[in-house]
Design brief:
This protein has 239 residues and is an alpha+beta fold. It has 2 domains: 81 residues, no CATH class; 102 residues, no CATH class. Helix content is 32%, strand content 16%. The strands form 3 sheets. Strands 3, 4, 5, 6 and 7 form a 5-stranded antiparallel beta sheet that branches. It has a two-stranded antiparallel ribbon with strand order 1-2. The longest helix has 28 residues. The chain starts with a helix and ends in a 5-residue tail after the last strand.
Length: 239
C-alpha cells in the first residue's frame, strides 16, 4: 500500500518541478540572441523591402543619434503580414533586445542592441541629474576628451560595469567631454586584435570588428581606432 502511494506523490512532484521550469525557460527565451529569430526577421525585412520598392520597416529617429540604434525595426509593418509573431527576446515582447537595421543603404542587416546596457546608462544619467554634478575623474587617454567616471560623486561605493555581449568580461563605463556616458569596449577590441590579428588601419573606426561578426552591436560607445602598437584607443575626434 505504501508503495502504491508513492506513485501519486512522485507524479505531483514532477508536475510541480516542471511547472517551476517554465518561467525560467521563458526568461531565457527573452535573453538569448537566437539565430533562427534573426533569420526570420531578416527574411521579413527583405520581403518588405521588395514589396515596397526599397522602403524599410523602421521607426523614425533623429539622424544625429548613435549609428547603432538609429534604425529600430517597426514590427507593426511586418507582423503578422510577413512573419507570424514578434521574437520572444524583442523589447516589444518583454525581452532585452531591440531589433535594428545596419547598413541600410547597401545591405540592410538585422542586428540586436542589448537594452540592459541602456538601462545602466539611464541609471547614471538619473544620478547625475539628481546630484547636479558632472562626474569627471581622470582622463582615460590623453587628447581623447574621455574620462573615468567619478562614481563616488554619484553616491556609489563601487564602479558600475556591464556584462560584455562578446566575452565574459565586465566592461567599464566612461564619460565623454560632452557629459554623456558610454560603454568602453577596449577589452573586447584588444582581445580580437591580439588573437585574430585583423588588418586594421590607424584612423579608421574599428568597432566593425564587433558589429560585423556578432549579432549584438556595440551600442552606446565612442569610436575606436588603433595606435602604432595596434592597440585600441579612443579616436581623438570623438567629442
Amino acid at each position: 500500500m505504501k508503495r502504491m502511494l508513492r506513485f501519486p506523490l512522485v507524479a505531483i512532484i514532477i508536475v510541480l518541478l516542471s511547472g517551476c521550469m517554465y518561467p525560467q525557460d521563458e526568461i531565457e527565451s527573452k535573453q538569448r540572441p537566437y539565430e533562427d529569430q534573426l533569420e526570420t526577421v531578416q527574411k521579413a525585412v527583405d520581403t518588405y523591402r521588395e514589396q515596397s520598392q526599397g522602403l524599410l520597416p523602421i521607426k523614425t529617429r533623429d539622424m544625429d543619434i548613435d549609428q547603432y540604434i538609429k534604425y529600430p525595426i517597426d514590427f507593426t509593418k511586418i507582423v503578422p503580414s510577413l512573419t507570424e509573431k514578434i521574437p520572444s527576446n524583442a523589447y516589444e515582447q518583454g525581452g532585452i533586445y531591440q531589433y535594428v537595421l545596419m547598413d541600410v543603404e547597401e545591405n540592410p542587416t538585422v542586428k540586436l542592441v542589448d537594452l540592459r546596457v541602456a538601462e545602466r546608462i539611464r541609471e547614471l544619467i538619473l544620478r547625475k541629474t539628481v546630484n547636479g554634478v558632472l562626474p569627471f575623474k581622470d582622463p582615460v587617454q590623453e587628447g581623447a576628451n574621455v574620462y573615468e567616471v567619478d562614481f563616488e560623486k554619484m553616491g556609489l561605493k563601487e564602479p558600475l560595469t556591464v556584462e560584455s555581449p562578446y566575452s565574459d568580461a565586465h566592461l567599464p563605463l566612461v564619460v565623454g567631454g560632452d557629459g554623456n556616458f558610454y560603454i568602453d569596449y577596449s577589452i573586447d577590441l584588444n582581445r580580437i586584435l591580439e588573437k585574430e590579428k585583423p588588418d586594421v588601419k590607424q584612423g579608421e573606426d574599428i568597432r566593425y570588428l564587433l558589429s560585423d561578426n556578432h549579432p549584438i552591436l556595440p551600442a552606446y560607445s565612442l569610436p575606436y581606432t588603433v595606435n602604432e602598437n595596434n592597440e585600441p584607443i579612443f579616436m581623438k575626434s570623438s567629442n
